[in-house]
UniProtKB/TrEMBL annotation, chain A:
UniProt membrane topology term: Multi-pass membrane protein
Membrane-spanning residues: 200-217, 229-247, 353-373
Protein name per Swiss-Prot or TrEMBL: TBC1 domain family member 20
Record's compositionally biased regions (Basic and acidic residues): 10-23
UniProt keyword terms in alphabetical order: GTPase activation, Membrane, Transmembrane, Transmembrane helix
Major localisation: membrane
One GO term (biological process): acrosome assembly
GO cellular component, one term: Golgi membrane
Ranges where the Rab-GAP TBC domain occurs: 48-234
Subcellular location: Membrane
Gene3D superfamilies hit by this protein: 1.10.8.1310, Ypt/Rab-GAP domain of gyp1p, domain 3
TrEMBL record, chain B:
Keyword GTP-binding appears in the UniProt entry: yes
EC assignment: 3.6.5.2
PANTHER family, per the entry: PTHR47978
Organism: Crocodylus porosus
Descriptive protein name: small monomeric GTPase
Amino acid sequence: MAVRGRRAGHRDYDSKKKRKEAEIQQALSSDPIDVATLRRMAISEGGLLTDEIRRKVWPKLLNVNTDDLPLPPGKELREDNKDYQQVLLDVRRSLRRFPPGMPDEQREGLQEDLIDIILHVLKRNPQLHYYQGYHDIVVTFLLVVGNRLATALVEKLSTHHLRDFMDPTMDNTKHILNYLMPIIDQVNPEVHDFMQSAEVGTIFALSWLITWFGHVLSDMRQVVRLYDFFLACHPLMPIYFAAVIVLHREQEVLDCECDMASVHHLLSQIPQDLPYETLISQAGDLFVQFPPSELAREARQHAERMAASTFKDFELASAQQRPDMVLRQRFWDRLRGEERTKSVLTKPRTNRLVKLAVMGLTVALGAAALAVVKSALEWAPKFELQIFP
Amino acid sequence: MMAAAAELESSLELSLGGGAGPGGLPPARSRIFKIIVIGDSNVGKTCLTYRFCAGRFPQRTEATIGVDFRERAVTIDGERIKIQLWDTAGQERFRKSMVQHYYRNVHAVVFVYDMTNLASFQSLPSWIEECKQHLLANDIPRILVGNKCDLRNAIQVPTDLAQKFADTHSMPLFETSAKSPNDNDHVEAIFMTLAHKLKSHKPLMLSQPPGSGEMHLKPEPKPAMTCWC
């Protein structure tokens, strides 16, 4: 009976997978390409299913034209590049990110490609700064889509989703980490208060955020599943996902000794058997219930003097008139306006201990998921704005 | 892939497991020495801390992103002490806004350079300066560790140069290898020397409320190999 049950379950999964594949193909072949559907597919259960599909869909999610890919970067990039030494050190040590059975020679070739891609993107975008962990993101793209396409995708990603991490300083990264505790507080104040009294800080989640979990997850399938999700969503989604992981481990956290070292250690060791699909769905729900604009004020209180300097950075950067900067500027302007209204109202914290309601992101992707998708457009390459007028 | 993470994790499990008292009693609360390990990228901070906490050289390590934490319980003169090592990222951008939280309540600082990389030695003044900015107390013990001394043919930082620098900054110098611990100063001995120094130096953070009044510590004899002046 058990066997039959398993077979039935398998059949069910297979047919679901087939259906999803067909839907993705249809979205890809419609004219214009149905990017909204592709986003939904990337978020919903199982993500984009195979690397073959990812090679087709990831460029669409990032609005990268695959007909006009840059030539593979050449070796001349390595001469007088200020980041070369650091990149070299990090890539040489990143053995863990390559499939375990891969022959050394092949791996070494890929490591050279990895160095070239990183230096190429940095060279073409002098406003971007390399950080340790960037290589963990780039290697994922290299392994999934190959050298040339990876170069184009990573460049787009670096000027959008990863842009904040690549500032001259990590102040903006720190600012994003400051969203973590307010999100946790909204769902489970007890965990929040415990972590505050342990003074654990948020650095345990730093590598999660800036590598999109590539640095800490062992199974490449889990990594690419998360990349499907993050590529389709708002750039702050990884911090919601980080919060969901902490909340998922609520009992372990509360059972821990209430000091910085114990809690930091517990949280920085990420379990390898997390229920990813459930957590993805929860992260999406949290995003809808507590969108970044709502959390911004609390994050700022958490950060104290962060906000002013951050905003100044934005103003300075937008002076360069890069398109992504203009988009971001609009976002921040609106956000500031909203905050002004809110601080007048001084809303009491009525929503403490809100239960995580799973709104069915995994099954049907209703209105909630649409909101996630829609909000992604704030930051997404602008071509899609006509889809959601 | 998982092996590396699991391996690193085991160093702590090992030490936490060893902390349980006999007969199922909760372990007596022990004092904690918090030590921060800093220095340029790739000088071997992770390998040194891992060597001390897990007793061996890790098979492969990756760039540390942010701050990692390792711990080991030791017994000094019959007293159980937890040595916490905070292993930090080497890249400069992480220092400025990320790491300072972890300087809090630090009892000692270990500066590490790579003996086969002159640049890592030359950036020591900036690490020392940075450390000064974060630590209010001036009398926190600091030591200087030159790592990778087993790579004899590649040494770029001669001992006399390093010793002179250490003297100028009133720090003891150790030359060692996390990989091949029989070379020069044993990693174990370095951290234990530091622990002895801390134990004899002044009262440290207690993980139990003080008040038993029985914390009279015998001053440690100075280890012959170092100079703390």
